[in-house]
Fold each of these.
Amino acid sequence: MRLGAQVSVSGGLTNAFVNAQEIGADTLMFYTKSNRRWQAKPISEKDAQAFKETAAEYAATIYPNVVHANYLMNLGSPEEDKWEKSYHSLVDEINRVAQVGLKLMVMHPGSHMKTGEETGLAKIAQGIRRALAETADSAPEVVICLETMAGQGTNLGYKFEHLAYLIEHIEGGPRVGVCFDTCHVFTAGYDIRTQEAYDATMAEFDRVIGLDHIKCFHFNDSKYDLGTRRDRHEHIGKGFIGSEGFACFVNDPRWADHPAHLETPKTEEDDEGNKTEMDPVNLATLRELIK
Ligand SMILES: [Zn+2]
């Protein structure tokens, strides 16, 4: 498996590679926009070119790379202006991924905001479908990876059936896939702690969605237990999922070429205030699990 992490691009998009190399990652994921603001400066042609050149330099060591879309977007929103903003933001995100020469873009499906799951899912499917049509010429190779969610609040995507519904109604063919987040799937109620539980969850995923839809993973352990529908990430092996669960993923030959990214806390501080960079520690933990 290709193991990496979400990395910072502060100071410039090409810093993603510098930061990924520093932690010993085989693959990276980053945000091209802030999650705190709707507006983002367009990526200049010069910056896009620099990113592509840097990606080519690292082509043998850091790949395949993934963009995570901002999560202010909510195509499940019943508010017209919020929906419109979300829609335009999504089209922009898809085009930005194509602009930097990447293919995989992870997005959170959205929330129904108490309008009901069916209503929310229908609105989301309609929005993504339209966004894919609008970017058919500008970003034909970009694949939207719908992320499995924990189900906090009115978030959708915590049942495999939600994602199956979206994939069916978006009708995007190869332009729609899934990002499998271990923490979210687990707190949503699907056990992955043992080989037996993992096999059953994967069989269920295959039955409802189809395993070939999985394009990438988020590797996070969980601060909360099975079925709590809470989304709090813990270091690998230190949470409720545990090492045995992650061993199932990294040793599954079906995922040999798939990228998996950590979204676990970046640093830990001891009692004396000494900080430890945790991405290298979590990557080492995962690599030790490979048999
Ligand atoms: Zn995410």
Amino acid sequence: MQKTDSPILSSVFGRCPRCGGGHLFAGYLEVARSCNACGLDYTGHDAADGPVVPIMLIVGFLSAVGALWLELTFHPSIWLHLIIWPPLILLLSLALLRPFKALFIGAQFKLRAEGGKFPDKNL
Ligand SMILES: [Zn+2]
């Protein structure tokens, strides 16, 4: 199990915000009950809809700029846009959802957000 010290890398790899070694997720987006390395209790976390907002901004910007560039550069048929952009938007959104959720949970832990109720006994 790879241990990460950086909060950003912990988020990218879905690791515990405290030790950087244990798994944060039990499924694709389901958060585990506790860290399997340090025992940090994950219950009470609340990333809610927070991760969706930056993902919508990032994916929306990339897809709009990409579609505009493709249209102005190659003038393809509309069906080519319909083939390219919906699957790309879906894949990018799904790829970014897990790291952004981990980033929000890690930020709640680091900032000791009350809603998260993470214990701060080992900080
Ligand atoms: Zn841990």
Amino acid sequence: MRVFVTGASGWIGSAVVPELLEAGHEVVGLARSDEAVAALTAAGATAQRGNLDDLESLRAGAEASDGVIHLAFKHDFSDMAGAGRTERAAIQMLGDTLAGSDRPLLFASGVALIAPGRVVTERDAAPMSGPDSPRGGSEQLALGYAECGVRSVSLRFAPTVHGAGDHGFISRIVGVAREKGTSGYVGQGSNRWPAVHRLDAAHMIALALEKAPAGSVVHGVGEEGIPARRIAEVIGSRLHIPVTSVAPDDIASQFGWIGAFFGLDIPASSTLTQEMLGWTPAHPGLLEDLEAGYYFRPASQ
Ligand SMILES: NC(=O)c1ccc[n+]([C@@H]2O[C@H](COP(=O)([O-])OP(=O)(O)OC[C@H]3O[C@@H](n4cnc5c(N)ncnc54)[C@H](OP(=O)(O)O)[C@@H]3O)[C@@H](O)[C@H]2O)c1
């Protein structure tokens, strides 16, 4: 299959590219910079210049492909509404281009805001649709293309897709602990965070490309829910700093913007995904990855 991958130069995308090549696919990655072109070429993929605001570049990539994996996202937490609008427009262009072809359109989403407080499964629908909902309601928009002859599949990732080189939520939480001199958790710290290793997530995506049916939801979740206190304890132990409970009123001053996430109880299951795809997460869990030490090395090492 000739697969058009947006976000191919990103954290998850750069692990997906070798998975796809290994499985015998041809990969064309969307690249918005010379650095991304160089990275994709070095990885054995072909680069196609373009960006999320250049919808014609998305149309051209999808048109020339046998399937699309859409991972690019503007991670600008100061303008999530704008990022959501961009996402929605991109999904619409990709979906319209693939309509009537039965080609796959896999797109990134998350398990985090579906139903805090209980274990979310693949059967749970996103609670809201429309431009004002989280991520612009792009999951429902994209899954709707299953009715238009597109094999659309939602790739819902755990909020931490971890591994060596991670620059996402967990590395931010480590950074906050370092800055504050204490490793915090909210309240009792019993709120749970699901996690998945980056290489397990990449393998799941490659399997979903081949096997997931139209309109399906798959969960990139290797661990259902790790209590936040355990995460804070490992971080505190590695940084040799105290581990403290943070009162709900102090979340913003301790954690900044990431506190809105780290205090959430958002466990999620991937049992149905594992059964559907024959996928078994095999790489280290989050605490093991934290214990491995690379989250705590200076950036130059
Ligand atoms: N990592 C996680 O823990 C996690 C958890 C849940 C959901 N997700 C979702 O999974 C997807 C992939 O995440 P990730 O961790 O791989 O993100 P990432 O490392 O930030 O990579 C984002 C990718 O999007 C590209 N991109 C950003 N803005 C763009 C634009 N305007 N035009 C074209 N490309 C653009 C980046 O290109 P450059 O390489 O040029 O910067 C990069 O390739 C995202 O939708 C993310 O929200 C991730």
